[in-house]
Amino acid sequence: MGRRSAFTLLEVLISIALLGLILPALYQSVELLKDSNKHLFDYVEKAKKISKATEILYLDILSSDGNLSIKKDDFSRLCIEQTRNSLYELPSAKVCWIVMKKDHALLRVEGNGYLLPLRVDDRVEADLVMKDLEVFDVYHSMDKVLVLIQQAKKEPISFMVQGVTKPQKKKKMAAKKAVKKKRPPGNQETNGTKSPGKTPPPI
Q1: How far apart are CA 147 and CA 160, in angstroms?
Q2: Could you point out which of 51, 96, 114, 176 has its C-alpha 20 to 30 Å from the C-alpha of 69?
């Protein structure tokens, strides 16, 4: 049998037709793989942000002096009067974790000497932690702090910090009453003149 030198026109057309069927399927598979990788990357990034946020909150509480102010509303508002866990290289800072009404966004506010609501001249740093919060509750009992966090359509997060003792209330020092020392009675001065004696009756 003689060797074939080239493909026939029919074979070329069949190959092109098969390639036309295979390429769209390959392209679709590549696009699905890219979308899957993108979703996985986004999920990992969000998971990193959430784990980083919970780590910061954990360290804020653990490094605090135990003076925690918790205000209950639709969400808890946690204010730590003094913590050594500063993101802005402060020796100690006041940190508040609050949930905004808009988008139910969780914010971390760090500074010193400020009160809520903030004033224009307050020097603080506010960082957006996460949005679409459904649950943010904090409970402080004895030396334990329990934190519950849940975003919409996400698994809830909870953790407990132990060893956070509430600061003891300073005992009010009772003012010592000055003891008034009674002045010792002085010697009464006697008059040098003798009292006149009774004159004897006449005989």
Answers
A1: 6
A2: 51
